Amino acid sequence: MSSFIANASNQNTGNSQATIANNGFFPDINIAAMRDRMRIDSTITTPRLVDAATQAIIHVNQQLSTFKASKVELGFSKLSDVPSETIADESVLTSHYLRAVYSIAKADLIERYKDYDTTASSLDDKKMIEFLSTGPDECRRNAQWAISDLVGRNRSTVELI
Fold first, then answer.
1. Is residue 142 left, alpha or beta, with left meaning phi > 0 and alpha meaning psi from -120 to 50?
2. Burial of 137 (0-12, 13-18, 19+ CB in 10 A)
3. pTM value > 0.90
């Protein structure tokens, strides 16, 4: 059984250097990088972001448990060891994994903040409105697409008419 360890130096700012240690196979999650990539400012406190990211890691890791087992059986001890194309000095597989985790975490945060009062006019409220402009369904779709891309499964979108 693996454990997740959140180590945050300043838990109330967006500049925190929090890192969530993953299970050894999948990469650790850097909270500052997540904030940058997903446009999450300090309106969302670091403890809330760490909680959402931890839950997202658990969810994505469960979805990828068969994938992980097959790669470990082939002798790969980390996702970054699995042969993959590299773009911008990052493994494509690692990029897909991070996108899945970040997207699930953001979907969770959006759902938790959906009752936020968007009628006020302060700068923080404008930032929150921008944050909430992405729907949680879009984030979950992006996560599922990233997982599908990671395992080499075709994407599919089904819509009931």
1. alpha
2. exposed
3. no
DSSP 3-state of 36: helix
Distance of CA 33 to the CA centre of its chain: 10
Tokens of 141: 């779709």
Our measurement of the distance from residue 138's CA atom to the centroid of its chain's CA atoms, rounded to an integer in Å, reads 13
Q: What is the pLDDT of residues 6-50, one digit of tens each?
A: 444 444 444 457 999 999 999 999 999 999 999 998 889 999 999
Neighbours of 55 (CB within 10 A): 15
pLDDT, tens digit, 9 for 90 and up, residues 122-153: 445 555 555 455 688 899 999 999 999 999 99
Which residues lie across from 7 on neighbouring strands?
19
Residue 52, Cβ neighbours under 10 Å: how many?
24
Residue that the structure tokens 């970054």 belong to: 80
Q: How many residues can be counted in the chain?
A: 161
